[in-house]
Amino acid sequence: MQEGDDKQDLPAGFRQQAARWFARVGGAIDWFETTALCIALSLLTLGIIANVFARFFAQSIYFIEEVSEFLIIFITFVGLSYAARKARHIRMGAFLDLLPDAIEKTLIFIISAVSALVMFAMARHSLNYLLEVKAMEQTTSALRLPYWTFLVIVPIGFAAAGIQYVRTIIKNILEKEVWLSSDQQSEYDELEEEST
Questions:
Q1: Burial letters for 144-176: b for 16+ Cβ neighbours within 10 Å, e otherwise?
Q2: What is the pTM of this model?
Q3: Which of 104, 92, 86 is CA-nearest to residue 165?
Q4: CB-based contacts of 186: which residues, under 8 Å, 6+ apart?
């Protein structure tokens, strides 16, 4: 009988270990994305403000436009992964919340799987584009940096967003409740929990 009990405890133990590992990975990703977005946004703001003052008092800073372009690309593609992790992307939330949990969970699986496939396909295509740009050996006009270095974040951002959708699928497998992303539970489920 004890062996049978151990076999029954194994899935629960595995589930707890997976949930702990999942939380650690999620925390590390959250820290990196939040820190990177805050730093990039701060640098973009400071650079643009400094350039406004420089233009007013003397001459504009020649490299600010290129640095700003890089930071906007960086914020966009790191933000793509962040939005997928926090379920802040465009979705049919009201429609999903009206459905029974089983159907909502099934749709979340389908939506996450399709989204992950699209993100991974975009990562592959953007990597091919990055390699083409690198082969052309094009440089930026002001800083004379290889232009491909500005685009490195694009395939990384798409791949990271794809990973977030895979994490959503895993979270919905591990948990009984419906999760819109690995960090965001269904709003309807949250309201139910708060009312009890």
A1: eeebbebbbbbbbbbbbbbbbbbbbbebbeeee
A2: 0.80
A3: 86
A4: 96, 97, 104, 177, 178, 179, 180
